[in-house]
Amino acid sequence: MNQSITHTTNHFSPAASLAAIGVKLNQLDLFGPIRTHVHIKQKTVKHTPVNKLYDAFISLLAGAHGLVEINTRLRTDPALQQAFGRQACAEQSVVQETLDACTDEHVRQMQQALDLIYQQHSQGYRHDYEASFQLLDVDMSGLPCGRHPPLLPPRAILPGNITAEGGNWAACWPLSMRK
User: Fold this and answer.
1) From CA 47, how far away is CA 43, in angstroms rounded?
2) What pLDDT was estimated at residue 12?
3) Whole-angstrom Cα distance, residue 135 to residue 139?
4) CA–CA distance from 70 to each of 65, 140, 155 (Å)?
5) Cα separation of 172 and 138, whole Å?
6) Which of 52, 75, 76, 173 is the S-S candidate for 98 at Cβ 3.0 to 4.6 Å?
7) For 148, which DSSP code?
8) Residue 96 burial (CB count, 10 A)
9) Is the four-CA dihedral 32, 116, 74, 107 of positive or negative sign?
């Protein structure tokens, strides 16, 4: 007999670090602007259209390569669902139907919502471009970086003879300053 006589409310997730991020995103109400600005007219049986979009978002964060993986990555992980504030997850075909119902107007609504999210949470939005340029460190290699990475790349020479070490660098400069 393999039945437990005690009821447990603890859930375990193979995506524990993502669950921690989910708790933080839920506290920040990161999806709030999408909830208030994106209005997809669709019948709601168990999950609202915005909840289905949220399920797609969580699945992508969990490493899904497509919506078909919602059933295997998210629906099978109740702890991950709860970390993101969801009590259950929509089935992948239902999420796909919601995306299929989207129009150009919904895309515009989503762009407005994403602009709000960027304005509310991004340090880049608050940067004072009058005072200085904003340098962006972009490392597309995925290799370790820092002062002493295993294979130190050559020094990057930026406009104004500024040098940088330890990573792949990209900078945003006006065209007039490029050499």
Assistant:
1) 9
2) 62
3) 13
4) 9, 27, 43
5) 11
6) 52
7) S
8) 17
9) positive
